[in-house]
């Protein structure tokens, strides 16, 4: 099963957008993510609907933040993207009448619920500003890695 990387990828994009004074186009974001600009527009539209980004059309148009990074949490973005299932592990329901399956599913459900609650709490406690500050510290302390710092793998700037 393929991992859902939308949260990680959109957090990455938002930090880059915050570092730019001008709008970032869907084409530029698509290049960074190695995807199609239509996919970028569709995903960014989810964030726009929740008021995290805004877009401008035309020459010099593109995506910009609509809120300060300090006002956006990881949980906000997770929820804006549709709150995909956090765990790929699922319960077996082939034999719902089986008492063993019921006992196993009850134990697993309890563990999954507790783990999900803890993860969502943590996502809600971390702002994008904190991520940006972590990046800035890493950037300041990093040796000049020509590939990453030149923007080869990320948006330039």
UniProtKB/TrEMBL annotation:
It holds the Pfam family Rrf2. Keywords: 2Fe-2S, Iron, Iron-sulfur, Metal-binding, Repressor, Transcription, Transcription regulation. One of its GO terms (cellular component) is cytosol. GO terms for molecular function: 2 iron, 2 sulfur cluster binding; DNA-binding transcription factor activity. The keyword Transcription applies. InterPro entries: Tscrpt_reg_Rrf2 (IPR000944), WH-like_DNA-bd_sf (IPR036388), WH_DNA-bd_sf (IPR036390). Signal peptide: none annotated. PANTHER family: HTH-TYPE TRANSCRIPTIONAL REGULATOR YWGB-RELATED, WINGED HELIX-TURN-HELIX TRANSCRIPTIONAL REGULATOR, RRF2 FAMILY. This is Transcriptional regulator.
């Amino acid at each position: 099963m393929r991992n859902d990387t939308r949260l990680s990828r959109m957090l990455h994009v938002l930090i880059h957008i915050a570092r730019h004074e001008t709008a970032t186009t869907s084409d530029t974001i698509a290049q960074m993510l190695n995807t199609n600009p239509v996919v970028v527009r569709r995903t960014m539209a989810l964030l726009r609907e929740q008021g995290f980004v805004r877009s401008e059309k035309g020459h010099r148009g593109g995506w910009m933040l609509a809120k300060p990074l300090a006002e956006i949490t990881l949980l906000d973005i997770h929820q804006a993207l549709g709150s995909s299932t956090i765990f790929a592990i699922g319960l077996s329901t082939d034999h719902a009448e089986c008492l063993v399956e019921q006992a196993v599913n009850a134990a697993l459900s309890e563990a999954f619920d507790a783990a999900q609650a803890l993860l969502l709490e943590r996502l809600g406690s971390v702002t994008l500003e904190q991520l940006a500050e972590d990046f800035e510290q890493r950037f300041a302390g990093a040796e000049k890695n020509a590939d990453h710092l030149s923007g080869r793998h990320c948006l330039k700037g």
